[in-house]
């Protein structure tokens, strides 16, 4: 099959005859129509995250259509439009049985730690990892369901959003989703902090009430005493973790979402104790996929507006090399199969 392969020399290269995944009798073969480019993928290529070794087909944000199903698959058929939950679990350990398959010791994530991912033309998936993509939604919106699922899980765990003053650090895709979700969950106000004008403007369009421009050092003149009931770290920056601790009100909640790739401690734990803070995070929310899809279908959350770059698959390798070489900046880039309904 055609695939964009992360090669041992650190470059991404389109290969015409990469082996397609062979689906088992209890799996479906999904033709990938849209695949999100995640900063996790870029961090893996740059060596900041070592989830897999090249050669490797990345991509865990996947929507497509079923090409064929194995003989033991019930309820799905060729042609069905689907969203893929990339997290795999054994299905029988304590973690899997308690709804946390992402902690399964024998589990993994398609495209990140196991299998062949969405940068290839096909992925093999068990029915338990498939969700129906409503007809009204594009494949591109379908591929955004994975980042939406993770951010939704984090907001859901923060619990006390209604009426809260919420701050979001980082206006990337996750930050844009957090700002919208906080708004939908009834926040009294949503304040977005970022260093880029374009992402702040986007945040204001999508649900943030105010946008604060940070200097390159991460400082801001924003009211020194202003505090927030819930602060979300969605930038992956160590500086932002510190800002979150300063800006959170006593008794408030910190949502740690971004990975910063530095193994050094970035949290003065005494301040968490002294301020009586709650700390939550989320890497996957297996029970919330349907809710995320409904939030988009109902128009409450706009995931399409976050996609800044739609890249035809054939141009994907060159585009990815520009991203990893830091020659290009995006909010959210999406690989789109040529001819698929991207929008
Ligand atoms: Zn991702
Ligand atoms: Zn398990």
From TrEMBL:
Its cofactor is Zn(2+). It comes from the Bacteria. InterPro entries: ADH-like_C, ADH-like_N, ADH_Zn_CS, GroES-like_sf, NAD(P)-bd_dom_sf, Zn_alcohol_dh. Residues 25-135 form the Alcohol dehydrogenase-like N-terminal domain. Residues 175-283 form the Alcohol dehydrogenase-like C-terminal domain. GO terms for molecular function: oxidoreductase activity; zinc ion binding. Keywords: Metal-binding, Oxidoreductase, Zinc. It holds the Pfam family ADH_zinc_N. Belongs to the zinc-containing alcohol dehydrogenase family. This is Alcohol dehydrogenase catalytic domain-containing protein.
